[in-house]
Amino acid sequence: MIILITMLSEPVNSSLIELQNIISETNSNKNNNSLLDTLQSAVKKIGDRDVMSHHTGLDKTTMHDQRLDNLLSGFASIFARITQLSTETRLEETTLEAVAQFSKDINQKTEVLLKVVKAIDNNVDLNNASVALTGAAKDLSEAKSLADFFLNFENFRTSLKDWLIRVDKSPKKDELNESVESYAQDLLAQVTEIVKLLKPHLDKLKAKPRRLPNVAVIGTAFGDEGKGRVIGYLSDSDKAKVVIRSQGGANAGHTVYDAAGNKHALHLLPSGILVPGKPNIIASGTVVDPEALITELNDLEKIGEIKPSGEELQLSANAHVITDMHRLIDMVLDKARGKDEIKTTARGIGPTYADKAYRIGIRVGDLLDKDALKKKLGAQVRAQIKLLEGYRSSGALEEGYKALKEPFKNEQGEEKPARMPWLEYPGHTASASMSSTDEELNKFIDDFVEKYSKLGEQLKQYVVPDTSAKVAEIAKEKGGLLFEGAQANALDIDHGVYPFVTSSNTTAAGLLTGSGLGPNSIDHVIGVAKAFMSRSGAGPLPSALKEDEVEAEKALSPGEHGTTTGRKRGICWLDLPLLKYSARINGMDSIALTKMDILGSVPDKVKLCTGYKFDGKPCATIEDLPQGINSFTNENIESGRLKALYSEFDPWDVGAVSKAKTYDELPDEAKEYIEYIEKELGIPVTMIGTGPERDKLIVRQDPFESPRRVPEPEYKLVA
Description:
Blueprint: H1 2-7, H2 10-26, H3 33-47, H4 49-52, H5 60-88, H6 92-120, H7 124-141, H8 146-169, H9 173-207, E1 215-219, H10 227-235, E2 242-245, E3 254-257, E4 263-266, E5 280-282, E6 287-288, H11 290-304, E7 313-316, E8 320-321, H12 324-335, H13 349-358, H14 370-389, H15 396-405, E9 408-409, E10 415-416, H16 438-459, E11 463-464, H17 467-477, E12 481-484, H18 508-515, E13 524-530, E14 532-535, H19 550-556, E15 570-575, H20 576-586, E16 590-594, H21 596-599, E17 606-614, E18 617-619, H22 634-638, E19 642-649, H23 654-659, H24 668-681, E20 685-689, E21 697-699
Parallel strand pairs: 1-12, 1-13, 2-5, 2-12, 5-7, 6-8, 7-11, 13-16, 15-17, 16-20
Antiparallel strand pairs: 3-4, 9-10, 14-15, 17-18, 17-19, 20-21
């Protein structure tokens, strides 16, 4: 097109060169590349003589369209990138002021141009296009926000393109060249002015790199989903600046492998502990069994020769302490339920959180002050004994005591060593009389204080007064927080299948309260889901495998034992409504789907729970059930009131899944299953587990490359 070739004459190209120089100078720092590459590309697109010159072999219409598209899309790309830069640097007002001035100037210049054109050629088609362009330019000048500007600019682009085509068809087009050239130069000059205006702010990015997103990893169902291997992969990245555990205790269990291939069963330690030099934080929302934590640290050294420093592991002084008495109470309370027992892990988690709420708890910092510890621990133990003595007459106290102190048989009838052979109780046995035990009780408390004081000394190098301050500092300066969730959404004390839940908030929001951070501190939530489901302990499972699905259970059962308890897990098909429920509660951005290699080995059909029937009425979601998640009861399932509905899929080649390094290499049957889940949830599956090894994970999107959910505010004090 003659007009557009003329538009890019030397004056226009001098403006392009000026714009190029500004961007290239700002772009010299590598931290800005991701922000400025599109801007530079857009300028190149406008000024590229190869693109804008004649194209041999193209017909006239194609040639016109290509040049117009390059010119107009180039302008649009420039404004889009400037807006992104302004958002990332909190410069919305500055940018809006600049584009507002641009819009007003262009409106004025468009009016002048169209008057000149009308005087040269007053044909009907060109006049109609000029009226549309006049209206689009006027709307552009009246934009009140960046969003309005972009919407109106798209309309302006369309109108300008249509108008230029009409000009090109004008018999007087050669007379219009000078006016159109001047107009194009004005457009480009205005863009250059905007970039000049922002340049001082862009320069600041060189001194202060863009903060990384903060990522949370949570379980979507009943735990045992494979969160540890996802955390293990993410913690290997330099983008993960710190790994944080902020709820639960040693009742969690993550099986992970270190870089040397050594297998570790972590319970309280964050999975980033296996990465040399990586800071890990056990925050104030956790409950800490000092004895279990020291054992875990010793196992790290024994198995993988890993001995974390005080920089690599920090333990909040405000985290509450689990003692032997909490573990005893945990077991006694469960035994007192009789046939309705929850089958607790007996790690003392619930009773410790209860004492925290009763305000008689012991915190990690107390272990380092023996006098304070004696006073606080004495009061706590006396209150705990009063509670336990209430269960003596029913036999629950003695039953719980023996269940911890003596060897036992597991659910498979296998002999297991005692969980707590060292356990003592005032009077030394649970059945001893408590009528005159003041002396024994005082000695028990003194021994208890001595024990936990020594444990505190062993952990002293890791204890810091306030881990939330450290986390906040990293979040402000670098970002890249990696929150490691424990248990899972269906075990959340508020939103789970109560009472078959844990004692803390296992949701993304719970990770924040336990860490001491605000609600805008998580940018990306990954929900980890196993391709099928399982759970340890008691509790309702609507999609549990039936008695006639023996072969499927055999295929899915290997390795399905709790990391913490060793108990055999109940196996069930993946429950899609439960996954949707978890996505809503946690604001999930993506799914990590593990054990795809195992699910494909079922001999017949792979099933996926896609809804329920309750009293014969179809329910597509948990919210459709009469009592929501509270409709999940053993009674409803056993009576047949609550039934799972399924879709079926063909199984896939397990070997092909295990060998796959990319999504495209997965069997079509596996991709069909994954894509069905994505479609139903409206959430992408970005990680796919193809085997237990550390490298058996297909990653389709790095969560640390996701945008920050809320840019950091810059506060201005007003006099």
